[in-house]
Amino acid sequence: MTTFDTLLAQQIGHEFAASHQYVAIAVWFDDHDLPQLAGYFYRQSVEERNHAMMLVQYRLDRGMGVVIPSVPAVRNEFADVREPIALALAQEKQVSEQIQALFAAARAENDGLGEQAMLWFLKEQVEEVASMQTLLTIAERTTNLFDIENFVAREAGSHGDDPSAPSAAGGAL
């Protein structure tokens, strides 16, 4: 098994873990009557699930075999509105490092198909980190939770389907 193959198998689990963490964050916001933030993180959860399924489809297409791993426990409690957003930003930065490692492994192993597949995910991570950093900045600048809710309603909505996105096994949700 190559390094790329190993990292790719692990990344499926990382993406599902991110999806679960985003559900926990969304539920926390829902429980604190912050519907815009809750909706944003519910959508983020679906997006991470779709990323996992894109990687599953890639492995299926390449005949690499697929094992769906279990996911670790998620964090469910937060002291304030900034904590879950900071956790999400840290998670996105970690995923960026993981995707960069996948790209580097594919390149080192002369796997042009693997390298090409990771390019979309690298582009996606730039957007994910930037949007989460902006959301955290907004949360840190205000003490009025309605300011954050209004920002999310106005600026952090769905950006639509990306026609260049890889196919997800079973179809994207």
CATH fold-level name = Ferritin
* Overall pLDDT metric: 95
CA distance, first residue to last residue: 31 Å
Task: Tell me the number of helical segments per DSSP (H or I, 4 or more residues long).
Answer: 5
CATH architecture: Up-down Bundle
How many structural domains? 1
Structural class by SSE content: mainly alpha
Largest sheet: none
Write the CATH homologous superfamily: Ferritin, core subunit, four-helix bundle
CA radius of gyration: 17 Å
- Classified by CATH, the class is Mainly Alpha
Count of β-strands:
0
How does the overall form come out from the CA principal axes? elongated
Sketch the topology as an H/E string, one letter per element: HHHHH
Low-confidence parts, pLDDT < 50 over ≥5 residues?
Answer: none
In short:
This protein has helices at 3-31, 35-61, 82-108, 112-141, 145-155. The chain has 173 residues and is mostly helical. It has one domain: Ferritin (Up-down Bundle).
Overview of the molecule:
It contains five helices and no strands. By secondary structure, the protein is an all-alpha fold. The protein has a single domain, classed as Ferritin, core subunit, four-helix bundle (Ferritin). Helix 3 packs antiparallel against helix 4. It is elongated.
SSE map:
Blueprint: H1 3-31, H2 35-61, H3 82-108, H4 112-141, H5 145-155
Helix pairs in contact: 1-2, 1-3, 2-5, 3-4
